[in-house]
């Protein structure tokens, strides 16, 4: 079979992307929250404060979202490298892998894209996703053919430090680099993704009632990396990770310890950026994150025009607005 690699829209270079450790308490995942498809970009009335320029002019591609019956579904595979590992038994007891994965893929596709029939819906051609449960450090990572680029010192710093979650006692370590993957780069093309998920991490999820939600949450986060765009490899890691956790948040799979924090910059990544994106989604209308993702498909990332064209103001101003709104809400409490 010939593998078609898009020439003008390289698949996301989300290749070594890390999942933060999350943890503790709460029941299994509630049903997904499908969002209503807003009007297409350029015709959107849902963007209340938007003076962004219409990008129809450089829409050189046709939609590749699937067919009229729905988004194109990938072949899903599960590989358990060590059935004797206690994490393997916990995984198999906690989830129906086929079911949660197909639901998670559907959620990711729906939250990142309008609909297969919508001309602005162009998804990466992710043909297969293989979940590999194995004994490794860290939590999880997703591979393809390219390495994620380090962006700014501040955002790469986020992903280099070893952090220890106080709740679950699992270290967040920089997951082994792709070169240490058992696969060489040439074994897979970017249409075929692998999600490596740590059996040790699964084994450490506590309390046990969190297993289903945590496993589903981590897999949902990693599946976003299989479907999101990354500005041809130029998107800041913090935004890539923020979008992944925004999807997780919108599937009601946020772990109990997540909270809205306003310290630092907007692009610290993970839930920190996810809650900021949620503020943007609420302020500018449903589909705003889809529009961010779509813009990351079309253009290399250049911070100032990216945000001002999309939302009419610089991201620093949006972040300031968000910080002020949060501090007012905190005062009320
Ligand atoms: Zn990630």
What does this 3D model show about the protein?
The chain has helices at residues 86-94, 97-112, 153-160, 199-204, 211-227, 237-250, 270-284, 288-298, 303-311, 315-332, and strands at 17-18, 66-67, 70-71, 75-80, 128-134, 140-143, 163-164, 171-172, 192-198. The chain is α/β, with parallel strands linked by helices. The protein has a single domain (17-23, 55-332), classed as Orthogonal Bundle (Neutral Protease, domain 2), CATH 1.10.390. Strands 1-6-9-5-4 form a five-stranded mixed sheet. Strands 2-3 form a two-stranded antiparallel sheet. A two-stranded antiparallel ribbon has the order 7-8. Strand 2 (66-67) and strand 3 (70-71) form a beta hairpin. Helix 5 crosses helix 6 and helix 6 crosses helix 7. The longest helix is centred in the last third of the chain and has 18 residues, at 315-332. The radius of gyration is 19 Å and the shape is globular. Mean pLDDT is 76; it is low at 1-16, 23-63 and 145-187. Zinc ion binds next to strand 1, helix 5 and helix 6.
């Amino acid at each position: 079979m010939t593998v078609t690699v898009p020439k003008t829209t390289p698949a996301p270079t989300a290749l070594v992307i890390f999942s933060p450790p999350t943890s503790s308490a709460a029941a299994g995942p509630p049903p997904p929250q499908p969002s209503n498809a807003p009007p297409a970009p350029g015709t959107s009335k849902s963007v209340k404060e938007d003076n962004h320029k219409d990008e129809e002019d450089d829409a050189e591609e046709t939609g590749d979202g699937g067919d009229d019956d729905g988004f194109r579904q990938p072949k899903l595979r599960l590989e358990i490298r060590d059935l004797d590992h206690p994490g393997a038994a916990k995984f198999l007891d906690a989830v129906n892998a086929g079911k949660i994965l197909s639901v998670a893929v559907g959620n990711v596709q729906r939250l990142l894209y309008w609909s297969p029939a919508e001309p602005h819906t162009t998804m990466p051609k992710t043909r297969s996703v293989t979940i590999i449960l194995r004994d490794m450090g860290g939590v999880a990572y997703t591979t393809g053919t390219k390495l994620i680029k380090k962006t700014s010192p501040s955002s790469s710093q986020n992903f280099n430090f070893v952090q220890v979650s106080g709740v679950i006692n699992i270290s967040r370590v920089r997951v082994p680099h792709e070169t240490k993957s058992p696969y060489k780069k040439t074994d897979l093309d970017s249409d075929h993704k692998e999600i490596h998920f740590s059996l040790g991490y699964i084994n450490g999820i506590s309390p046990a009632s969190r297993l289903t939600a945590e496993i589903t949450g981590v897999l949902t986060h990693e599946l976003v990396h299989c479907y999101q765009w990354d500005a041809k490899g130029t998107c800041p890691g913090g935004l890539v990770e923020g979008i992944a956790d925004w999807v997780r948040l919108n599937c009601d799979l946020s772990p109990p310890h997540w909270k809205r924090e306003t310290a630092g910059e907007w692009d610290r990544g993970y839930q920190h950026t996810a809650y900021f994106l949620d503020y943007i989604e609420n302020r500018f209308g449903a589909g705003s994150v889809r529009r961010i993702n779509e813009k990351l498909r079309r253009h290399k990332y250049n911070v100032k025009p990216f945000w001002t064209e999309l939302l009419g103001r610089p991201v620093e101003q949006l972040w300031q607005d968000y910080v002020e709104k949060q501090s007012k809400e905190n005062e009320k409490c």
